[in-house]
Amino acid sequence: MQPVPLEPVNAVVPPTLLQFDPREAPFVDGSDGLPAVSPAQLTAQALRARFSAPPAWTPELRREPRMVDRAPAQAAVLVPIVQRPQGATVLLTERTTHLSNHSGQVAFPGGRVDPEDANIAAAALREAWEEVGLSAQFIEVLGSLPTYTTVTSFIVTPVVALVQPDFELTINPYEVAQAFEVPLAWLMDPANHRRHTVSAVDGRKREWYSMPYQDGPDERFVWGATAGMLRNLYRFLAA
Predict the structure, then answer these.
(1) Average pLDDT, integer, range 161-173
(2) Concatenated DSSP letters for 143-211?
(3) Residue 52 confidence (pLDDT) above 80
(4) pLDDT, tens digit, for every residue of 122-135?
(5) Is the pLDDT of residue 79 over 80?
(6) Whether 5 contacts 17, CB under 8 Å
């Protein structure tokens, strides 16, 4: 399955990808009869153990159909799992509406890997600091998931990390409208996953996951690449 992207980096996305509202696209239940990851597997100790000795598993989503003619580029996103006393959450961002690409969409902190970055994890940490002011002193990197290649040829590595909850964010107002958290247990329950399909104006079929989370009066519409990487995290933890 090849989902429609939510780019974590700046890129020009073809108009054919933007001529529909993903919230209104037809969908089916994405649970596929799969069980939720148990709370015992979502503790800090269990997550450390899983990444230190990964199981045999297969990511569900790896590559989207290429839609632009550009050389591949490496990118990294941070998947920040905040260790709240009431249960772990995932820190996500909403991009500002004035941006020319993916305005108003939900994303992980992240972006292109710079030549100065020591490695992929360093790039993810740098981007988290630049976008939301999340300091590395609160972050414990656990490991990474397989790369996820977007339609704009960004090869994205999700870097998964535990985050201590006593951080204070400083939002970069140019890139990020707000930051929010979604319970990890909710995201790791396939009962909350939807699988969408739509035919674009170029005649090609687009398929992707969404995870619309009701946060009080606000719906946090997690979809595309962000939802795809979370689906892979589910497969990894459930294996």
Answers:
(1) 96
(2) EEPPPEE-TT-EEEEEEEEEE-TT------TTTEEEEEEEEHHHHT-GGG-EEEEEE-TTS-EEEEEEE
(3) yes
(4) 999 999 999 999 99
(5) yes
(6) yes
Look at residue 199 and tell me whether its pLDDT is greater than 80. no
Please give the CATH architecture assigned to the domain spanning 25-238. Alpha-Beta Complex (3.90)
Q: Are 59 and 144 a contacting pair, CB within 8 Å?
A: no
Query: Are the C-beta atoms of residues 22 and 227 closer than 8 Å to each other?
Result: no
pTM as predicted: 0.89
Residue type at 103? S
Crossing angle of helices 44-52 and 224-238, rounded to 10° = 80
Q: How far apart are CA 232 and CA 18, in angstroms?
A: 24
Residue whose structure tokens are 């450390």 = 48
Query: Contact, 52 vs 231, CB < 8 A?
Result: no
Strands across the sheet containing 218-223: 27-29, 194-199, 205-215, 218-223
- Name 29's bridge partners: 194
Q: Are strands 148-149 and 154-163 parallel, antiparallel or unpaired?
A: antiparallel
List Cα–Cα distances, 142 to 24, 47, 52, 203, in angstroms: 36, 8, 8, 41
Mean confidence (pLDDT) of the chain: 87
Fill in the amino acid letter for 224.
G
77: helix, strand or coil:
strand
